[in-house]
Amino acid sequence: MNKWKFAIVMLITSFCVGLFLVFTIKPEPLNDALIFFPLDPTATFDEATSHIDFLAIEDEDEYILDWSVTSVLNQSAYLRQDVSLLFEDGYLKDTLSSWRENTDTIEMEKDVKSDDSGHYRVVTFHHAELHYPNDEIKSAQKLSFDQLYVIDSPLSPLHAFRTPQTEEEKESKRILDYILQQQQDYDWDALFEYYNLPKDRYLRIPLTDLVLYENEPIPGLTKEKTAQFLGGLWEGLYKNYVLGITKKDGSTVSPIGSTVPVILVPDTADHFFVLFRTADGEPVQLLQTINN
To answer: Mean per-residue pLDDT for 218-238?
Structure first.
């Protein structure tokens, strides 16, 4: 009888504890979405920077890069998000992201190990979500970019530069740029053929070149539509690329090792495609329309 009483008491106690947890523990807000809203002309970024720097040499071939991102909005926002992508020689090496409520500032930093010569590019999307009365929600956004060449040559010590200063650095940059351009052109041509897209109808914009279109409109779009295009693009990339890539068989894989997404803008400029390959070489195509 005592055992039955003990069991009943334990059951009631567990039920009460469960109710207590349900009513007192609040779930964390979801941070698995980046949503573009109409841009707020009063919300601007006082600072938005990405940096990739040569930090230290580990041994003869390995070295450490310091990757940092800083952004400051001119006002506190309901939600601040920064998403930064680091590419090495045309492939995604790593991602860095932060999500904070009721703040104007985001700071991120990460050390990345690497080896051999390489061309590193960082592209970051800085985003803010602002809430106003009557359920009005607006956005603020900014892009930042940085790049670094690391040269590991038997003819000179391991070193890095952004802008080549010597003849040797100029030649090293030329070779790395040429190899990457040849590699990307070949792969993009193959993707055009795979998806049966006419090459002469689309402007190709690698994701790493998007910062060029922040202050000037994409051909066929107004400046306002270009901003809308960029916000919608990063909303889709965050969901379908950064958080994981859905393959044809329905499985989800990490974006690490995938190629730089190339954005295809047609001459009609009413939609765009995004093409890339997963780390194991599977082609991926994303489509987004541009509202008139």
So the answer is: 92
Q: Read off the tokens for 150.
A: 């690391």
pTM of the model: 0.87
Place of tokens 């070193």: 159
Judged by average pLDDT, the poorest of 29-33, 70-74, 254-258 is: 29-33
| Cβ–Cβ < 8 Å for 172, 147 | no
What CA–CA distances, in Å, run from 125 to 214, 242, 261, 262?
A: 11, 12, 15, 16
Q: Tokens for 265, please give them.
A: 């803008």
Look at residue 21 and tell me whether its pLDDT is greater than 70: no
Span 81-96, pLDDT tens digits: 999 999 999 999 999 9
The per-residue pLDDT for 23 is 32
Q: What contacts 24+ positions apart, CB below 8 Å, involve 32-36?
A: 32/243, 33/238, 33/239, 34/81, 34/83, 34/125, 34/127, 34/234, 34/235, 34/238, 34/239, 35/129, 35/139, 35/235, 36/139, 36/141, 36/228, 36/231, 36/232, 36/234, 36/235
